[in-house]
Amino acid sequence: MVHIRSAKTEDIPMLKGFIFEHGQNEWNYLPREEVLAHLSKIEIHEVQALIAEEAGTCLGFCSFNKELPEKCLRYIPTGKNKNAYLAEVVVHKSHSGKGIGSELVEAAKNVLKMQDIQALYAVRHTDNLGSAGMMRKSGFEVIAEFDDFEIRTSGSRRTSITRVELSNYEDIGVGGKLPISIAGS
């Protein structure tokens, strides 16, 4: 059974290795120092992360926080000031396509909804079809697309900004196709 739990300080070194082993591909922008700094903020609770594991083995994780990247800020509607950013969703290469990423996103939405977050934003390469499908399945809508030659080196070199409104999201139970249990920290 896949178990989703909150990441703890002692998980940080594993997450740092996992993201570079299983998250690097032509679509993902993973500047090493920024990613390492982001994951280190789990320890001081500025970043939250959820880990999907089975029999003690990490199958994937997602990380999120309440500080949005600058490129998202112009797309926040007036009066919607309780937002979060889905920074990373990474699934072990041998487990991709099994719904683990979607379940992690659903679990993150549940956590954030309980924290009164109104919307969850994410940024992805426009051509990343796997990410696009997972986000669409999780209710994200593309709200903007633009050329992003600074960070995109392949395909169309475009970035998509996506958002899912959590104020309309009512399912506080993870109800996907995987047998999942969620445990707190």
Task: Describe the protein in words.
- The chain has 185 residues and is of the alpha+beta class.
- The chain has a single domain (2-172), classed as Gcn5-related N-acetyltransferase (GNAT) (Aminopeptidase).
- Helix content is 26%, strand content 31%.
- It has helices at residues 12-22, 32-40, 70-73, 100-114, 129-137; strands at 2-6, 47-54, 57-65, 83-91, 119-125, 141-147, 158-165, 180-183.
- Strands 6-7-5-4-3-2-1-8 form an eight-stranded mixed β-sheet, sandwiched between helices.
- Helix 1 (12-22) packs antiparallel against helix 2.
- The longest helix is centred in the middle third of the chain and has 15 residues, at 100-114.
- The relative contact order is 0.19.
Q: What features would you highlight for this structure?
A:
single chain, 185 residues, alpha+beta, Aminopeptidase, 5 helices
* Alpha-beta classification: alpha+beta
CATH class: Alpha Beta
CATH-scheme architecture: 3-Layer(aba) Sandwich
Strands across the major sheet, in which order?
Answer: 6-7-5-4-3-2-1-8
